[in-house]
Amino acid sequence: MPPRNQQKLRVPLKQSVMMLQRFCKDKIKEQLASVLPIVIYLILFQSVILGMPLHESGTIAAGIGLVVIGLAFFLEGLFLGIMPLGEILGVKLPLKSGIFTITAFSFILGFGATYAEPSIAILKANGSFVKPWEAPLLFVMLNQYAGYLVASVGIGVGIAVVAGMLRFMKSLSLKPFIFATVPLLIIFTVLGVFDKNILYITGLAWDCGAVTTGPVTVPLVLALGIGLCRTAGDEENDSMGFGVVTLASAFPVIAVFILGIFLNLNLPDPMPQSEFFDAANREAALAIVGTEERLQALYEQFTANALPAHDAVKEAVNLFNVAGTKFLEAAQAILPLTIFILLVFIVILREKLPKKDEILLGIFISVLGMGLFGIGMEYGLTKIGTQVGSRLPASFSMIEMSDSQETMRNFDRSIVQKSITPEGEVNEFFFKKEADNKYSQIPFVEKNYDDSARIYRYIPRIGPIFGEYGGSGGYLMVILFAFIMGFGATLAEPALNALGMKVEELSVGTFKKTTLIYAVATGVGFGIALGAVKIIWDIQIFKLLVPAYAVLLVMTFFSDEQYVNIGWDSAGVTTGPVTVPLVLAMGLGLGEKLPGVVEGFGILSMASACPIFTVLVMGLRAGRKAKKMQNLMNGGGRK
Fold this sequence. Notes:
22 helices
């Protein structure tokens, strides 16, 4: 029985509901402020700058609404149910257990947090964009072995967290870890020069390092790391608690490369489409796609010219299936991690669970929020990102508007007419009667005509919007668009805001949160712009990554430890649940519309490298100013 002075406060039901409504309203407003600006920017760019209407606008609007609500619920549940336990574990685990227990806990925490990251599911969803004959290994990793891919990323993060915790306990500098890890990453990256299969997974591998450090991993790892750092007696240098996010971004890249090299042993090299579907290469094709059914489906999709049909019943069933899958994935991602943390808390630390009701409610809200976010991502962020990305090439070239196609039934081939250009090129066309009794001229493309069904599929074409082919205006427009998108999306990332607040707190206000955020956002903007350049001109990713990280190694050598820790960690927190789906979808949509481009991965890897550069530049400048000030003070003292 509680003491008399600890009586529970009873709140009327009506007042409780009003308090809950105000709370939910505030949290949803926070996420709206994060998500809406970049979404509005995408819509305005497509409708105003490119002059194209938003396709499936109702579905996208509903999806974005679910993203906002889901993200609000997920983050609130995370901070209510999981983060308090992570902070307590960071402080008390080193006091009540040995190094073996700490390393085992760190590995499982890193592995489990990977599965709980909302962004990790986006990688698996992008397998359908890859053509198996163009990039066999990339197709296999994103389709047949998607589970292996996520597991390898989780193992990489787990090992990184272990290395980070050992570093904290021994008070080691981050620089030796960087100088040992980055050259290894460069070696793996250069392997793509000698093997095209490895070349085409290079962007994916580096992007995997970017998606692993989001709103789940970063706060948990930072809380554990800073707690261990303080317990180890290094209270005077709390910035030592940073750096593990860097390792959690680098080690998964190595793990994905190792998985790719292993899977590549039994795979054929990239080949032409005709050779892939040739009966003589059936065994090689099956090694890539796995089953006869999948091979037949691909054949019908890419060669039989099957016409898609709109079926409201099928779409409703698909929505139901997607919802069930997303909630199941959310439970599978969050519950094992939380159960593990609770077991460590109760069994190893033997602590009484603080605020049990709040923690259980937080876990439930996290699962609910992640499920809603997953559905919204499927129908909102991914759709709008892909749509805008697929339309970007219209700035500088002519593209087909596949989602605006029109099916003409009972088509009579005899109405098709011919014309000839002064150069002797023959073109075919026909006239179509519009609803206002006007007639429009429609080009006739033989491959879009199904003679047996008497169906013609008209796919409108548009572009180039900004000048003729080869003009620079359209290219500059896409690069500028990518920069603004990266800059704006980064400002909305909750993980970066969390890092900024922690940096300002630990530096006692000398390192402002806004300074870090704008430096990182500028770096991400430049990085995504470089990623767009990589896709537009089909530049091999190693030509960008290797020089970039070589420069970063030199800058790291001359930088202070504090800025090294913060700068390299900032690269890992820039790519979270808002940036990842938009950037990945944009890159894949852009690559899909450009001839000769096999894959659209790699933008995130550039978005991770450039922020390190901007923060280190800021750190070197601050270091020079501090030295000048110190020299002036010393000189004044001697006088």
